[in-house]
Amino acid sequence: MRKIYIFDTTLRDGEQSPGVNLNTQEKVEIALQLERLGVDRIEAGFPAASPGDLAAVNAVARAVKNATVIGLARSREQDIDAVREAVKGAQDPGIHLFLATSPIHRKHKLKMEKEQVLETADRMIRYAKQYFDKIEFSPEDAGRTELDFLCEVTELAVKAGATVVNIPDTVGYLTPYEYGNIFKTLKEKVAGIENIQLSAHCHDDLGMATANALAAILNGADQIEGTINGIGERAGNTAIEEVALALHTRAEYFNAKTALNLKEIAKTSRLVSKLTGMVVPGNKAIVGANAFAHESGIHQDGMLKEKTTYEIISPETIGLKDSKLVLGKHSGRHAFREKLVDLGYDKLTEEQVNAAFGKFKDVADRKKNVSDEDIRALLEEKIIETPEVFALEHLVVSFDSHGTPSASVKLKTAQGIKQHTAEGNGSVDSIYHAIDAISGEVVELDDYTIKSVTDGTDALGEVHVVLKQGEVTAQGRGVSTDILEASARAYVDALNRLIDKRNAPTRNRRDNVTLI
Ligand code: KIV
Ligand code: ZN
């Protein structure tokens, strides 16, 4: 298999992401992690940009031992000198020189004719050659450069001493077919091309950076440039992890591989995200939080039967522990049962699982992700099986900060559904007055506590109440995403227990302990 070199520009093009500004220490930390990941080349910065950049590149150059450390330079002597200074102390130093070649850049930015571009590139590569063995030359905006002129520039760069010619699709304009064709043409037409490496550098303006990089590989590119998490100027660069995993997963198709230690990918991604402050979107390929999460019932069922049904990459490959079965409203009974077993509820009967699944679906309808804690709370909602004298059917609460709260409650009773509307000092008070009116029971609220089971505004709320009637006390528990509903459920639960206790005081409740 052909080796594809990985040129990481997280610290240069990646740092050009709007709002990102890494200090020297952060750059060194990322560089050392990139080294553990096994990238071949690290572009550490643009030394001529500022003394701070130069110092940071120098710190990286001194810290890194196994990768080539490269500094970026415009085609100017003072930029090349700045890189010389910056990479002093590197085990394996290199320079990346660039000069725009496209008609738009020649006319508006450089104000140069083709001949001047050729002459400048030749002179600057030769100047750099006095100091560097490893010289990468980039015809900036190669993607929009006339193909025959690009061939001419490439041939000149090879003759002048470049060891790598990089083909930047600077503005992310090309399609995979067009980009691949540039590599094919260069390979066919440029004399001496076999003596250098060809590199691909893509931007993601049209969402094609990874596809373009892969097309370049299929057409002979030896090196891919990119960043971790695909960060970079505007829409970013090719995401290195995407290319690496595409080559790994489709090895037979590409017949090419990187030397990356894939198990370091997740860690590297987290570090870059943390230090740059650029949050990785949940649906980002390979490193997004949802990349190995399955929510739909059909997918979860398939995953549990055989992971390869819905997973082409195992999370362990990139250093993650396991795929996540996220329980939500699309989850099915199979995944739910697995989760119960996972949580230690492995002795439930079919009937109990069904009852729990019903409750879970209820919560999942109102809450995006149902966490393990939510499920535990649901299972433990009813610790002692009690005959249901009353069951909450419906609840409407009206609250006005300038008026009196009222609640309309419907309870299922032995005589059918009964409804009552009552007012109170607060919403909970009005609910409890309405329930009292329906039940006809005279009870005292001895205790009321509320807590959140999980985090976030859509967390499950758990209410505990203690009711008292003469000598008899009973506690009840209610869980819901709505604290008023949880309050009503807890009260009805306590009422049922209180009635049961009053009617059968000697029953040994421990025998009836169940989880749902
Ligand atoms: O995108 C680009 O053209 C660049 C060059 C400096 C190579 O980043
Ligand atoms: Zn770029």
From TrEMBL:
Q: Which SUPFAM superfamilies match?
A: 2-isopropylmalate synthase LeuA, allosteric (dimerisation) domain, Aldolase
- GO BP terms: L-leucine biosynthetic process
Give the top-level enzyme category: transferase
Record's keyword terms, sorted: Acyltransferase, Amino-acid biosynthesis, Branched-chain amino acid biosynthesis, Cytoplasm, Leucine biosynthesis, Manganese, Metal-binding, Transferase
An annotated Gene Ontology molecular function = manganese ion binding
Cofactor list = Mn(2+)
Q: Which GO terms describe its cellular component?
A: cytoplasm
Q: What reactions does this protein catalyze?
A: 3-methyl-2-oxobutanoate + acetyl-CoA + H2O = (2S)-2-isopropylmalate + CoA + H(+)
Boundaries of every Pyruvate carboxyltransferase domain copy: 4-266
Please give the pathway this protein is involved in: Amino-acid biosynthesis; L-leucine biosynthesis; L-leucine from 3-methyl-2-oxobutanoate: step 1/4
Q: Does the keyword Acyltransferase apply?
A: yes
The ranges of region (Regulatory domain) come to: 391-516
- Per the UniProt entry, the Enzyme Commission number(s) are 2.3.3.13
- Quote the InterPro entries the UniProt record gives: 2-IPM_HCS-like, 2-isopropylmalate_synth_dimer, AIPM/Hcit_synth_CS, Aldolase_TIM, LeuA/HCS_post-cat, LeuA_allosteric_dom_sf, LeuA_bact_synth, PYR_CT
So where does Mn(2+) get bound?
13, 201, 203, 237
Write out the similarity annotation.
Belongs to the alpha-IPM synthase/homocitrate synthase family. LeuA type 1 subfamily.
Task: Outline what the protein does.
Answer: Catalyzes the condensation of the acetyl group of acetyl-CoA with 3-methyl-2-oxobutanoate (2-ketoisovalerate) to form 3-carboxy-3-hydroxy-4-methylpentanoate (2-isopropylmalate).
Q: How does it assemble?
A: Homodimer.
Name the record gives this protein: 2-isopropylmalate synthase
| Classification of source organism | Bacteria, Bacillati, Bacillota, Bacilli, Bacillales
